[in-house]
């Protein structure tokens, strides 16, 4: 049985019930969303928000932002034929592909110059979220429709969460709306539709074509894309048996289900050189992209906010001589970072684990100059690695108001400098919410290691900004120390070096098959590492490529539980003392431990906080957590790591995965190795699959180049 690879979809869900729940943000919002209220009331309530509630509140705010943006867009009337720009784009790209017209002829009209971003609408701080459970009669009605179509009635709450109070009528009128529930496959939706509609159901039904188009774009988002190129989308539709993919896309565009975009045109010298080269000269490539409105608006909002930061004058804090003084007190690249932040609203800072110390020095310097400076991390695990935990918050907690400085009277974050650590984990929605929330004159520093795995959500914000080269970039020159630092640094540049490890910092354990890999992993965690290294099992984490397979997290966690904390699993398979991975929202995983269980739910201790997971949410939110995937582990570090690479993982290994997994170890790394030469080959050649995003093109006409 092959290993189930850890895809971005795995990382976005990270829940044991992903097949049923799907981990959609819409569902999470419905389960419990924050109502917006006055900032004064929120100050008293926000302190009591749990990590899960903070996540849900942040998602509610993001949803409200999208709704406001949607109201500003000119919509195509439902049911009308496609016209205007969307139709022109589709016709133009087909003309180019067929060879009827050159690119310059069909896309000769330049894009209008984007205007400076307006002042964002500020949001007040949310109060404690109110659980919005669907009405029982609504759930029962949807359950009857599901049963009539042969679908599991257990899906009813999720259908109501996605489709709203009118779910019963909407689902009966359009059975393919079932595809919007996470984990439902097209063939399952087709069977459901046939059972409900009978002879009225056909493969070319417009409802089916629209649903498939949206579903494919949602799957692309789970893989990290914010949009798809039109040829890729139509090819995917053809593979799903759609007779006329172009017509399916046009219908989805006309109904407002998806949006089309033109990408790739330059306004500068390249066009002039193309004119000089004549008709036979090289033409600037043009892309037509199709995407979901949710991510399109988030990416546009992010680009506008970044442009506002780049073009604004940072708030004065002391005389220039004061900045020079604090920069002189720093060393090396830390001094360069201070000087860059002194004069710019947006700065990028790159480096490995040791570079985090430079971000801490920057915070100290900013506070010395009187700035209200805060740091934000992707996960509570990252907060534990920072020197000043009192000024380090999670991104979700900061946006929801559960953590950090709160918001001012205008709804902006009450700060002057924000340093975002683990910046590669920012997706476009979280990034948009952050930059929208910053006040005028604030400084933003995005700091992180560009070699780690990208965000679980769609986009590659940090990598896109680095590639755009529009703002100052400060590369840390502090090397990560010791044999582990040497090993991981080599992997980052594509070299798997033989490293001297006199203190047994690195141990390679060859195995023949997945069964032996599981046996040796349990032996290492329970016996060898505690005895030889002095790290107890509770401070060791196992990292493996996927959840499924003969050596995935499910099998490893079952074996580790049997050895380290055996029990009957009275509450949903869990017992007090079990290590768990708790996912309060898609893309967020917090390791913790089971404390107990009662009528209210499963009680956990996660990142020094007590969490109660309701009984009905346990299956969707909690996994055993002795073994994690690399996406779940990113942002955290442990004294000891056991990286498991079974033989069937060879085809899915990438340099970023290996770099991330090996880099989670502070003192000791054991590599249970069954992939043989596939490991150095993956380090040398296994680059991550590219993501299709619009951010570089959106930034191009707006942001001045970095000096």
Written account of the structure:
This protein is of the alpha/beta class and 707 residues long. The chain has 31 helices and 19 strands. The strands form four sheets. It has a six-stranded parallel beta sheet, with helices on both faces. The radius of gyration is 26 Å and the shape is globular.
Structural class: alpha/beta
Which band does the percent of strand residues land in?
Answer: 5-15%
Kindly state the percentage of residues in helix: 40-55%
Strand order of the largest sheet: 6-5-7-8-4-9
Largest sheet: 6 strands, parallel
Question: What keyword list fits this structure?
Answer:
single chain, 707 residues, alpha/beta, 6-stranded parallel sheet, 5-stranded parallel sheet, 19 strands, globular
């Amino acid at each position: 049985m092959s290993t189930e690879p850890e895809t971005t979809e795995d990382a976005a869900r990270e829940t044991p019930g992903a097949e049923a729940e799907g981990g959609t943000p819409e569902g999470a919002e419905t389960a419990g969303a924050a109502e917006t209220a006055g900032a004064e009331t929120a100050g008293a309530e926000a302190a009591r928000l749990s990590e899960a509630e903070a996540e849900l509140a942040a998602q509610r705010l993001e949803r409200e932002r999208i709704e406001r943006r949607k109201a500003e867009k000119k919509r195509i009337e439902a049911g009308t034929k496609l016209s205007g720009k969307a139709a022109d784009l589709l016709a133009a790209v087909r003309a180019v592909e067929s060879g009827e017209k050159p690119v310059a002829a069909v896309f000769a009209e330049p894009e209008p110059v984007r205007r400076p971003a307006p002042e964002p609408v500020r949001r007040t701080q949310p109060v404690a979220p109110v659980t919005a459970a669907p009405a029982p009669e609504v759930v029962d009605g949807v359950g009857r429709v599901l049963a009539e179509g042969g679908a599991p009635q257990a899906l009813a709450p999720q259908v109501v969460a996605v489709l709203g109070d009118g779910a019963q009528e909407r689902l009966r009128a359009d059975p393919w709306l079932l595809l919007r529930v996470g984990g439902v496959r097209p063939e399952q939706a087709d069977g459901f539709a046939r059972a409900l509609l009978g002879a009225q159901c056909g493969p070319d039904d417009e409802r089916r074509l629209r649903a498939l188009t949206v579903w494919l774009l949602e799957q692309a988002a789970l893989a990290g894309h914010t949009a798809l190129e039109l040829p890729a989308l139509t090819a995917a539709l053809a593979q799903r048996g759609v007779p006329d993919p172009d017509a399916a896309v046009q219908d989805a565009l006309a109904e407002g289900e998806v949006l089309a975009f033109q990408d790739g045109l330059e306004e500068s010298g390249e066009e002039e050189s193309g004119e000089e080269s004549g008709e036979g000269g090289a033409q600037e490539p043009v892309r037509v992209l199709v995407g979901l409105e949710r991510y399109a608006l988030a990416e546009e909002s992010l680009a506008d906010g970044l442009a506002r930061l780049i073009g604004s004058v940072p708030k004065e804090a002391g005389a220039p001589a004061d900045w020079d003084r604090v920069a002189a007190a720093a060393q090396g690249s830390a001094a360069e970072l201070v000087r860059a932040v002194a004069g710019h609203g947006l700065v990028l800072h790159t480096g490995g684990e040791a570079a985090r110390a430079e971000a801490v020095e920057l915070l100290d310097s900013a506070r010395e100059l009187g700035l209200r400076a805060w740091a934000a991390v992707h996960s509570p695990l990252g907060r534990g690695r920072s020197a000043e935990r009192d000024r380090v918050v999670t991104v979700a907690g900061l946006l929801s108001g559960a953590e950090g400085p709160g918001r001012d009277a205008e709804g902006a974050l009450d700060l002057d400098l924000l340093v975002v650590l683990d910046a590669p984990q920012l997706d476009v929605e979280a990034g948009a919410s952050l930059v929208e929330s910053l006040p005028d004159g604030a400084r933003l520093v995005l700091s992180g290691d560009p070699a780690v795995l990208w965000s679980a959500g769609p986009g590659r914000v940090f990598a896109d900004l680095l590639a755009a080269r529009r703002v100052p970039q400060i590369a840390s020159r502090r090397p990560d120390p010791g044999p582990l630092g040497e090993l991981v640094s080599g992997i980052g540049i594509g070299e798997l070096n033989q490293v001297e490890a006199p203190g047994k910092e690195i141990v390679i354990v060859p195995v023949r098959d997945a069964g032996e890999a599981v046996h040796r992993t349990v032996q290492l965690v329970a016996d060898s590492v505690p005895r030889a290294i002095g790290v107890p099992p509770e401070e060791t984490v196992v990292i493996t490529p996927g959840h499924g397979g003969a050596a995935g997290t499910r099998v490893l966690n079952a074996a580790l539980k049997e050895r380290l904390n055996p029990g009957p699993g009275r509450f949903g398979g869990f017992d007090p003392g079990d290590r768990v991975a708790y996912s309060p929202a898609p893309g967020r995983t917090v390791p913790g431990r089971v404390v107990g269980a009662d009528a209210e739910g499963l009680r956990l201790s996660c990142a020094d906080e007590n969490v109660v997971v309701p009984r009905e949410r346990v299956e969707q939110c909690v996994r055993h957590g002795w073994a994690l995937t690399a996406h779940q582990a990113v942002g955290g570090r442990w004294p000891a790591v056991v990286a498991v690479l079974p033989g069937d993982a060879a085809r899915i290994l990438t340099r970023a995965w290996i770099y991330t997994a090996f880099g989670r170890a502070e003192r000791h790394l054991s590599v249970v190795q069954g992939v043989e030469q596939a490991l150095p080959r993956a380090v040398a050649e296994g680059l991550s699959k590219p993501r299709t995003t619009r951010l570089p093109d959106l930034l191009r006409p707006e942001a001045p180049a970095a000096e």
